[in-house]
Design a protein that fits this description.
six-stranded mixed beta sheet; 3 helices
């Protein structure tokens, strides 16, 4: 890993084009040469940003959620100020509309969404690929805004031992151990271990609530690869994880004041969450002829997850079992013509008990879809590619649906690439799991539907990438892309329809139920002098949705609505990353600066004031704020030492806990106007960290 982290021009696999052409994996591999840790893949059919091993080492990257700070494509924030749950946004939409893939297997679905980003250690990964738009139909059509695929360390890696340890100023500690072993010419395995947690609660903004909950996460993964001389390969693995978290009001000695066993109105409020997670998968690929132009593949994945979550006097105790199955046949008829057909199915069994004043406990749900798909690819050498796919599925509770998708790529000259793609995306909503922040409020819930509605959206867009020689290399590029996502049906979580109530309804219940997001992005990267790279990215988002007009009903009982800008969605973001390495890359310096644009706040936040009586959100919008990150790495033979700092501007969101203050100055958490879910900025100030990476390389 030390060498991978050091190399800014490592050739990385791009696995977004699924399941073909590669002899050592069930996923396609194309290679690109990069000028830095983050770059736009030139050969990928979709607009794909790659975060390489070098990019994953630019920051502490304790988990996946912390791996996107150098990216303007993906925005990461907290779902609330209590639980520590992280959420991403891609194309201006919540991460629930982005399909998360673990080496092309769908993960982090349903109950796995709230904390799933925290369960993937950054140092377990070799690379991350962020594909925008309607991706391949081969893994289903839950990818409305795109796909994020994670490539883990491989059993065939030449590293029998890798250790990464880091400690941060907020007392968070992180330890990762990885070992790849080749047992013989057919069998190899990788063992990945992780433990992280913090021991003292912090309250930088002095509101009486911990900025980050006390957490402990430990996980173990074992991945296996069998490869026969005939070309058949079998990949399988197991992963287990345990996560405990306690947040809320801060007590003595940096410990949580909340005790769920003795909680009563007037006592310290907080959260107490425990999660157990188990996953197993199997991937089998069998060539049907000598040149592997025809093959079949089976991909199976199973997950069981249980959560016991307490929020003040409320509790939410869900259990989910999930299964994914894909059976594929692929035929490369010639260099120009290729097709894949298959059968697929997804099944989720979710039972959940919600005990909360003014709430209805959701009934157990059985969600699933099963069907068939086909995808045809036409290649005209390196100049033109056309991919047409169709997914036909039966959805429980919704019936039969067709989901077409098309991708076009044209390179009139080697330096210029034009891309366009579009298609339909479908996913079952799980309202509480998708929006866990609503549990960190005192508000009542108003449900206008039963079960888990099927969300339906179309996404269209394109990309232009121009590469040119500049400075020390010919790998400089400018890239521009535009994407639009438009929903035919979507679950709306509305904080503004009623006072002290959160409403859940769908777009098809509204008279003019529309929701759409336009996203523009510009990327530039170059290496002006040897070993000095510059990456600059800017993004603008316009997100609009229909919202019910204070409960008014139109004809036929349909709720009247009006179009408004989506709240808490940042309009713009710009990111500048600079990296300089000395001769032989013994010293590496990384600097990242970002500017985050304003977002519309909820109506009830417009009158909030700071301690001096000044309006916090003049004009009903959040302030524009900067963030700075810095890391210095010193490399020795097999050992990297690094130190760094995050949020060096020390910017913090003010008054993150909303509600009425009592005589003691504390928020009265027993009232319905208590709300800890209105988060748009950093909760913690400056953090510094130090760490070490140790790599033992194979010698034989």
């Amino acid at each position: 890993m030390a060498a991978l982290c050091a190399s800014a021009q490592t050739e990385m696999p791009d696995t977004v084009g699924m399941y073909r052409d590669r002899t050592d994996s069930l996923a396609e591999a194309t290679t690109v040469s990069a000028t830095g840790g983050n770059f736009i893949s030139k050969r990928s059919d979709l607009r794909t940003e790659v975060i390489s091993a070098a990019g994953l080492c630019k920051m502490a990257c304790c988990n996946l959620a912390e791996s996107f700070e150098n990216s303007a494509s993906v925005t990461v924030g907290f779902s609330d100020a209590v639980t520590g749950a992280r959420q991403i946004r891609l194309l201006g939409l919540s991460g629930i509309y982005t399909q998360m893939l673990d080496e092309n297997r769908p993960v982090m679905r349903g109950l796995g969404a709230p904390f799933g980003l925290s369960y993937i250690p950054g140092q377990w990964l070799e690379s991350i690929q962020i594909a925008k738009g309607a991706a391949s139909v081969i893994n289903g059509v839950e990818s409305i805004t795109g796909q994020i695929n994670m490539e883990h360390r491989k059993p065939t890696d030449e590293k029998p031992l890798f250790v990464n340890a880091a400690v941060m100023s907020d007392t968070k500690m992180d330890l990762n151990v990885a070992s790849s072993l080749q047992l013989n010419d057919r069998w190899s395995t990788a063992v990945l271990g992780h433990v992280s947690g913090n021991v003292v609660g912090m309250d930088h903004n002095r509101d009486g609530f911990m900025d980050d909950p006390l957490q402990l996460i430990y996980s173990l993964s074992n991945r296996w690869l069998y490869y026969s001389p005939g070309g058949t390969q079998v990949r399988f693995g197991l992963k287990g994880l345990r996560h405990t978290s306690r947040g809320g009001m801060l007590g003595e000695h940096g410990r949580p004041a909340y005790d769920r066993n003795s909680f009563a109105p007037g006592r310290p409020w907080g959260s107490d969450i425990a999660t157990t997670y188990l996953n197993g998968y199997l991937k089998v690929g069998v060539p049907l002829n000598d040149d592997n132009s025809q093959n079949i593949a089976l991909v199976a994945d199973g997950t069981w997850q249980k959560m016991d979550a307490y929020f003040g006097a409320a509790s939410w105790r869900p259990t989910q079992g999930s299964a994914f199955l894909n059976l594929l046949y692929q035929n490369e008829m010639s260099e120009a013509h290729h097709f894949t057909v298959g059968l697929t199915g997804i099944y989720d069994a979710l039972s959940q008990h919600l005990q909360r004043a003014g709430s209805i406990s959701p009934a157990p749900v059985r969600l699933g879809n099963a069907g068939a798909f086909g995808e045809y690819t036409f290649h005209l050498e390196e100049k033109f590619t056309a991919i047409a796919g169709l997914h036909a599925d039966w959805y429980s509770g919704a019936g039969f649906r067709l989901s077409p998708r098309v991708t076009l790529k044209y390179a009139p000259v080697e330096q210029l690439v034009l891309r366009a793609n579009g298609g339909r995306g479908l996913r079952h909503s799980q309202p509480i799991a998708d929006h866990i922040g609503v549990l960190s409020t005192g508000k009542d819930f108003d449900w206008t539907f039963d079960g888990s509605p099927l969300e339906d959206a179309w996404t269209f867009g394109g990309n232009i990438t121009w590469s040119f020689p500049l400075g020390a290399t010919d790998g400089a590029y400018v890239s521009f892309d535009y994407f639009r996502s438009q929903f035919a049906n979507q679950v709306v979580v509305d904080y503004e329809r009623f006072d002290d109530t959160i409403s859940f309804y769908t777009l098809n219940q509204l008279r003019d139920g529309r929701s759409y997001t336009d996203n523009f992005q510009l990327d530039f990267s170059c290496e002006p002098v040897e070993r000095f790279t510059i990456t600059l990215t800017g993004r603008y988002t316009h997100a609009v949705s229909a919202y019910a007009t204070h409960g008014a009903l139109g004809s036929g009982g349909v709720i009247s609505s009006q179009l408004r800008e989506k709240p808490m969605v940042s309009r713009a973001k710009a990111v500048l990353n600079l990296q300089y390495a000395t001769h032989l890359r013994k010293w590496i310096f990384d600097f990242t600066a970002s500017v985050n644009g304003s977002a519309r706040v909820y109506d009830f936040m417009k009158e909030l004031r700071d301690e001096n009586g000044n309006l916090l959100y003049a004009g009903g919008r959040t302030p524009v704020y900067p963030l700075l990150y810095l890391q210095v790495t010193r490399r020795f033979k097999g050992v990297d030492l690094y130190v760094g700092g995050e949020n060096l501007t020390n910017f913090k969101q003010k008054n993150v806990i909303i509600g009425t203050r009592g005589a003691d100055g504390r928020i009265d958490t027993s009232l319905k106007n208590f709300d800890a879910s209105c988060i748009w900025g950093p909760l913690m100030g400056i953090k510094v960290y130090a760490g070490v990476r140790i790599t033992l390389w194979k010698t034989v």
